[in-house]
From TrEMBL:
A GO CC annotation given for this chain: mitochondrion
Protein name as catalogued: tRNA-5-taurinomethyluridine 2-sulfurtransferase
Molecular function terms from GO: sulfurtransferase activity; tRNA binding
Function: Catalyzes the 2-thiolation of uridine at the wobble position (U34) of mitochondrial tRNA(Lys), tRNA(Glu) and tRNA(Gln). Required for the formation of 5-taurinomethyl-2-thiouridine (tm5s2U) of mitochondrial tRNA(Lys), tRNA(Glu), and tRNA(Gln) at the wobble position. ATP is required to activate the C2 atom of the wobble base.
Enzyme Commission code: 2.8.1.14
Catalytic reaction list: 5-taurinomethyluridine(34) in tRNA + S-sulfanyl-L-cysteinyl-[protein] + AH2 + ATP = 5-taurinomethyl-2-thiouridine(34) in tRNA + L-cysteinyl-[protein] + A + AMP + diphosphate + H(+)
Length: 412
């Protein structure tokens, strides 16, 4: 009987993962990873609630249970890097680092590399694996609406040899229906059906006011004066905001939430009846150094980007020095650059879009990417994942965006 260490968060997905693995004949141990010590203002630690739920799940399924602490590792390897990128005005994704360094880093090392007791690790991710040409290939999950392969594109593929994704071929809706229809499961795990699905940051969870939560950790670079919302259309100052305020946590393409705008937006119908236009502003770029947030009306051309660069791109199945070929549909130009077409996601909750990629012959980790159609909400620091059909090619960070207003230096 193969032994599996399952990352158990205390939610429906990880519970059903434990249930399915047990039904398939695996000897399962549920492992709760504690990676955050923050207690919310109301004095109740949601982490302890999740721990209690995870422990209860294992007790009800009659499987072993362990708790491990990765608070130090999460802070040093994930959260500090996240904060540093926020300070630079970037749009980082800590869930990518969480998976790379914690779930498929510390957890994998402790239960596979340093432990002969277990044969596999497993997680409740919606992702799938395919064995081909003696390699384990990461692919999108059957349920495309919940697919989480985007977050896993920088995981070393050698780890997947020891990884199980029990939810790879299951729709989330079917999972819930199975839990509801199965009287025995429904009776035992009714407390999970009442639990709100988590959509917060890995191990930190959801916060009532996430921007204010971050404000406790992000050191202000400037302490004098006020910040400005500036229109890209004519350069006028739309509004001011407190210097070092929460406005800098706004993401590119997001509604700017300019002071007083909410009231103006509610008057839209009245103004339209009077044949007057109303402007709602969206974030184009941010500059901590200049203390400026550039904004534009919705669908203004400055919100859309065509070409970007990616640095430190991690290839799932290729050696770094192998520049001879990448894909069957790739070709090499006169400068020995490799060019191919594929699909890309630069946000988790988006459908992959078509793009053309140029891989520099001298810098295999450096990519130039051109979208088939200009895209909205592209930001420096965003994680990006490339796909060929459902196969994950790899992932990296957006380091440069063509036609930016501020003269940011490209990294990498």
């Amino acid at each position: 009987m193969s032994r599996v260490a399952l990352a158990l968060s205390g939610g429906i997905d990880s519970m059903m993962s434990a249930y399915l693995l047990s039904k398939q004949g695996y000897k399962v141990t549920g492992v709760y990873m504690n990676s955050w010590d923050f207690v919310e203002e109301k004095g109740y630690c949601t982490g302890e609630r999740d721990y209690n739920h995870a422990s209860k799940i294992c007790d009800l399924l009659n499987i072993d249970f362990k708790r491990v602490d990765y608070v130090k590792e999460y802070w040093n390897l994930v959260f500090t890097d996240f904060l540093e990128n926020l300070r630079k005005g970037k749009t980082p994704n800590p869930d990518v680092g969480c998976n790379q360094h914690i779930k498929f880093g510390s957890f994998f090392n402790d239960f596979i590399m340093k432990n002969v007791e277990y044969d596999y690790i497993a997680t409740g991710h919606y992702a799938s694996l395919m064995y081909k040409d003696e390699k384990h290939i990461l692919k999108r999950a059957y349920d495309k609406t919940k697919d989480q392969s985007y977050y896993l594109s920088t995981i070393n593929s050698k780890i997947f040899k020891y990884t199980l994704f029990p939810l790879a071929n299951i729709r989330k809706q079917d999972l819930k229906e199975e839990l509801i229809k199965n009287k025995e499961l429904r009776t035992r795990f009714d407390f999970l059906l009442q639990k709100k699905e988590s959509t917060g940051i890995c191990f930190i969870g959801e916060r009532k006011n996430f921007k204010r939560f971050l404000d406790h950790y992000v050191e202000k670079t400037n302490s004098i004066g006020v910040g400005k919302f500036v229109s890209v259309t004519d350069g006028r100052v739309i509004s001011n905001f407190k210097n070092g305020g929460l406005e800098f946590f706004l993401t590119i393409g997001q509604s700017a939430k300019i002071p007083g705008e909410s009231f103006r937006y509610k008057m839209t119908v009245v103004r339209q009846m009077l044949n007057k236009n109303i402007e709602r502003w969206y974030v184009v770029e941010k500059s901590f150094a200049n203390n400026i947030i550039l904004v534009a009306p919705n669908n203004h051309n400055s919100l859309f980007k065509k070409r970007i660069r990616v640095h430190n791109f991690f290839w799932q199945q290729l050696e770094i020095d192998n520049t001879s070929s990448i894909l069957d549909n790739a070709f090499v130009d006169c400068d020995n650059n490799i060019i191919f077409n594929c699909h890309v996601k630069y946000r988790y909750r988006m459908e992959p879009v078509e793009c053309k990629v140029l891989v520099k012959n001298t810098k295999f980790r450096s990519l130039l990417l051109e979208f088939a159609t200009s895209q909205k909400g592209v930001a420096l620091g965003q994680h990006l994942t490339l796909y060929l059909d459902d196969e994950v090619l790899g992932g990296g960070e957006i380091s440069y965006i063509e036609n930016c207003f501020f003269d940011d230096k490209e990294e990498g």
